[in-house]
Amino acid sequence: MKKKLIIMMVCTMAALTTMAQPAAHPWKGKKVAYFGDSITDPRNKAASKKYWNLLQEWLDITPYVYAVSGRQWNDIPRQANKLKEDHGNDVDAIMIFIGTNDYNAGVPIGKWYEEKEEEVMAGIHEPKHLVKRMKRMPDMNKNTYRGRINIALDSLKRMYPTKQIVLLTPIHRAGFYANDKNWQPTEAYTNKCGEFIDPYVESVKEASNIWAVPVIDLNALCGLFPLNDAHAQYFNNADTDRLHPNNMGHKRMALTLMYQLQALYCE
Known about the structure:
Blueprint: H1 2-20, E1 31-36, H2 51-59, E2 62-65, H3 76-87, E3 93-97, H4 100-105, E4 113-122, E5 129-138, H5 145-159, E6 164-168, E7 176-179, E8 182-184, H6 198-211, E9 215-216, H7 218-221, E10 235-237, E11 241-245, H8 247-261
Parallel strand pairs: 1-2, 1-3, 3-6, 6-9
Antiparallel strand pairs: 4-5, 7-8, 10-11
């Protein structure tokens, strides 16, 4: 009896020890492509360590970075084609962090679907027969924000059907005053097509459901709010650039991503 009790205690302690071991992060050691604009672009000097540099350090992620300053959603297919050209299918996941320049440029929001009436065979508790129904198809208008997202995600779903694709919402933005030819007011103002930044952020979240890809809402979750002077410390320059996060800002984004990514698989 005593021997059995000892064996049970040893087994229990072994089980508790195993349970105490932290599970490996699902993204540890993965190869991840990053698509986007200047916030992700390695050539942008606002931060010496960007969020993907930190994820590389913390999770041993191999980064493939294709982001280019100033680009909008219509550049995502080009970035995807370059990834395919360079690495083929040797990538585990793709992260897309873009949209702030579409807002700044005044790209119209547009619509998600084109609708038209068609005949389709149907039957519910009766013989199948032709009926008229409305049919919707993704709107592929390259001149609208939602059309551009549709084009990009349709392309990626075909190009990388087995890979994890993650959308990141644009973060809050205040003024960026580079020079007289590049003078960008804060998100407190509408753009030239009369839109605030909100529908550009919300559209990325809507695209998550439309295209069955997860979204991480950096706009809400990372906590960066450059319209408040107290948050100027997280951006490149309090007076001239509260668009691009500095090292502190990128660390907040990276921490948010690291914990959010734990809930997403990456094969």
